[in-house]
Amino acid sequence: MTSSLNKNLKDDLLDVCMRIVDSHDTHMVAACLYGAQAYGYSKEKANVDALLVLRTFHSGLASYQKPLGDIKALILTVDSRAFEKDVKQGWLGEFVADKILIPYEPLFNKDYLWRQEVLLKRRIIWELLENIVLGFPESSHELIVKPEYFLYETIMQRSKLFPPVTFRFLNMLRNETREKNVNQMMRGFSKALEELSEEKWISLSDEHVTITRKYIHAVRSKRIRVPSFIRSVQRAAFLHVFSVLPKMMSPLRREEEIFLKTHREFRNEDLTFQLEDPKKYLFMPTPLGPVPLSDETTIEEFVRKNVPSGEMANIQISEMGGVLNAAYLLSFRRNHEENKIVVKKFKDWLGFKWFPLALWALGTKSFAVLGQSRLEREYALSQFLYSQGWPVPRILYISLKERLIFKEYVEGENLSKIIQRLLTSKEMMKEEIALIRTVGRRIAEAHRLGVALGDCKPENVIVTCDGAPYFVDLEQASRDGNQAWDIAEFLYYSGHYVSPIAPADAAVLIAKEFIEGYLEAEGKKETVKKAGSARYTKVFSIFTPLHVIVAISNLCKKMSTK
What are the structural domain ranges in the chain? Predict the structure, then answer.
């Protein structure tokens, strides 16, 4: 971007920089113009800001105010080693490195500044990708990231950490200069993304970024990880130290004055709300198209978007029950056909309702508690298993801010009712017994794909009219989770339908069919053996008759040794 500073003034500014260099008996590494002059909205007679990088500058960091004709130049001077450490590690709270994050105009050694800009933006991208993987541990495989996300998330984070800098961002993103400034800032991000793509940390196609398994594995396998919020606090601390130095803060005060001249009715509490929402550039793919994480679609809005206005009168919304979540059945006619969609709203599990569940599985199984975490699991694992041909309802749409998932309705009978019939009937029906074996095979297939279902009690399985079992609740599912819990929960939970005075024979037959199906599909014997251990039997002894638990536990141990 060409600044509003004429060539003569630039030459004079460079001469001033050289006098500073000479006074310290050192060498100039690089120099650039930043601030309002570089961003394209400063008046011609306004003061200018420059960054001067010196070799072996013993003061480390200093600020000089020098006359420049009719105006003044504020020159931020830094030792090259300190500058490069700030670029690579945020050593100075990125107070200096930020000058090449935003638009600047090189005055000396353009190539050096470009290399440092790309290094800075590569580190920023790496850290933001790490935040995504840690914040969305299951769906980070699925997320689509537009390159602009890295720019706007960086701006948002810095504004929240150090509010005075927000005026600078708001000024450079004003309508008349926004496009040029964004394009210039994105050049460094684009180059850094290309490098990361060449190294297989990300996939880059059609101007979209997806995170590779190589990167996700690298993040998860770190033994010692400095949480991103700690790094942010460290940077914020540095910035607030600098804020007490009047010369260092004067460019930001000028930015505030420029902004307030054009926004006279502005209120300070609305500062960050004026910035672009970075979540607009993070997407979750669905059959109805990619959905940004900023989406706030409600049930009613979903209906208006997807049901023709002339057929709105046929819509019915009914509750499907649920203690820890709210679930609704959305019924409507479209093109003279009956359509049904399940809408699930994920609440945070807080308070008394959640406590008995946590107490019940204490020491054996941990549960995802926060609504967003459970929604993310259901979305990600449903997407993955559906893509592998595994029987799970298809996710149709997702509204992260409203914590809603819209998914296919599966018509059929709950497996728990079928098991109750098997336990009480005098004759075992071959088709229904075969169904239990199929369920065992399906769970083994999920385990082979590296997925633990987390909550696969019979109540969460729907059997369609053609005898196919569908698993309809994956909000506790996870990759590399506790697979023995899946087996234990299905078997012992099935056994709780047995009367305390009835023999365990029927429950053992059901368990035998399930385990045989599981092992036929290459489920691990060791996993079956674990399900028979005291670690799991103690959890279900609260509501399953003891003689049934002992019989199923013995069967698990016996069949795992064959």
Answer: 7-281, 312-408, 413-559
Which residue, 341, 337, 315, 321, is CA-closest to 329? 341
Mean pLDDT of 120-144: 93
Q: What is the pLDDT of residues 414-463, one digit of tens each?
A: 999 999 988 887 666 778 889 999 999 999 999 999 999 999 999 999 99
Token duo for residue 464? 């369609």
Residue 254 scores a pLDDT above 60 = yes
Q: What token pair was written down for 265?
A: 């009715």
269 to 175, 266, 273: CA distances (angstroms): 22, 9, 8
The closest alpha carbon to 401, from 282, 254, 318, belongs to: 282
Q: What CATH class has 413-559?
A: mainly alpha
Determine if residue 200 is left, alpha or beta; phi over 0 gives left, psi from -120 to 50 gives alpha, anything else beta: left
Measured distance CA(460)–CA(415) in Å, rounded: 8
What is the predicted pLDDT for the residue at 435?
94
User: Could you say which DSSP state residue 409 is in?
Assistant: P
Q: Check residue 423 and give its pLDDT.
A: 86
Task: Give 122: exposed, middle or buried? Use CB within 10 Å, 0-12, 13-18, 19+.
Answer: buried
The domain 7-281 belongs to what CATH superfamily?
Beta Polymerase, domain 2 (3.30.460.10)
Based on C-alpha coordinates, what's the Rg of the chain? 31
